[in-house]
Amino acid sequence: MPVAGTELAPSDVELVQETLEGWGVAADSGVTVALELDLTPELRREGLARELVRLVQDARRAAGFDVSDRIVLGVESSGELAEAVAAHAGYLAGETLAVDLSPAAVPDATDRQEAEVEGSAVTITLRRA
């Protein structure tokens, strides 16, 4: 044990880096970053909502809609995808310019796209508002 007034030398100190389970750690040039890698149900739903936005944007392009066109949107899904739509309906509608968002098919849809997100089927129907 050092006595007051003495200096510690690098050989007096042992640095150990242990990574906890569920965490990712990277170190470079004296900087260490740790990230919790476990996905919560909320984070999973948010990620699914982002993927649904991408699919709707692809469907808009395929239908030939202008970037500024408002749409009526139907997103038919089940399980976790349906939970993501319900939890992030405002985000989904806002990002896709949907004035109406339904968990069922749009009856007079001008475009219909079927896709799969993480093994779950989703059907996207839309038309100009």
Mean of pLDDT: 90
Class from helix and strand fractions = alpha+beta
> Biggest β-sheet, characterized?
4 strands, mixed
Number of helices: 3
> What is the spatial order of strands in the main beta sheet?
4-3-6-5
Q: What do these coordinates show?
A:
The chain has a domain at about 40-129. The mean pLDDT is about 90. It has three helices and six strands, in the order ββαβααβββ. The protein is elongated and about 85 Å long. It starts with about 20 loop residues before the first strand and ends with a strand. The strands form two sheets. Strands 4-3-6-5 form a four-stranded mixed β-sheet. It has helices at about 40-60, 80-85, 90-95; strands at about 25-30, 30-35, 70-75, 100, 110-115, 120-129. It is α+β, with helices and mostly antiparallel strands. The longest helix is centred in the middle third of the chain and has 22 residues, at about 40-60. A hairpin with a 2-residue loop joins strand 1 and strand 2 (about 30-35).
